[in-house]
Amino acid sequence: MQLAFLTTAIFTMLMALIETKILFLFLQMMNGFALGLLFPLFLGMAVEKIPHAKRATAMGAYQAIYAIGMFVGLFVAGLLNTSFGSEASFYFSGCISILGFICSLIWSREIKPITME
Questions:
Q1: How far are the Cα atoms of 1, 25, 26, 34, 90 from residue 14, in angstroms, in the given order?
Q2: Per-residue DSSP letters for 39-104?
Q3: Which residue from 7, 72, 89, 114 lies 20 to 30 Å from 28 (Cα-Cα)?
Q4: Dist CA 111 CA 91 (whole Å)
Q5: Residue 73 pLDDT > 80, yes or no?
Q6: In the prediction, which pLDDT does 45 show?
Q7: Contacts of 43 (CB under 8 A, 6+ apart)
Q8: Maximal CA-CA distance, the chain
């Protein structure tokens, strides 16, 4: 997860700097791969500790929160594009990925590994 967050951050921020279509497509491909690793992880983590009888409800809550994030993220990106240019939304998205990377580092240290005793 940490590698996927870091990869997403780097490739998203690099998109603001490139000027060729081929490089943009390559960065989109690599970013899509990293996001393709993150989203199934999030989905699994959202329901892993939920009893089977309540997983459909948990999935609905996850999707509702995800939808709010999709709206708010795009709304903020639009405001940034209008005020500062399209590069600003790439930097904003990259910073959000860096925040995810940092949070995943912190939380991974708090989780104690399961040992067989």
A1: 20, 12, 11, 14, 8
A2: HHHHHHHHHTTS-GGGHHHHHHHHHHHHHHHHHHHHHHHHHHHHHH-HHHHHHHHHHHHHHHHHHH
A3: 72
A4: 30
A5: yes
A6: 84
A7: 59, 62
A8: 58
Instruction: Provide mean pLDDT across the span 17-22.
Output: 92
Q: What is the pLDDT of residues 25-59, one digit of tens each?
A: 999 999 999 989 888 888 888 888 889 899 889 88
The number of residues in the chain equals 117
From CA 88, how far away is CA 52, in angstroms rounded?
Answer: 42
Structure tokens given for 109: 């240290």
> 42 CB contacts (<8 Å, ≥6 apart)?
62
Provide the percentage of residues in the chain whose pLDDT is more than 70.
Answer: 94
Residue labelled with tokens 């990925």 = 97
Q: Which of 26, 31, 41 is nearest to 7 (CA)?
A: 31
- 36 to each of 4, 8, 28, 31, 47, how far by Cα in Å? 9, 10, 12, 8, 18
How many C-alpha atoms does 51 have within 13 Å on its Cβ side? 2
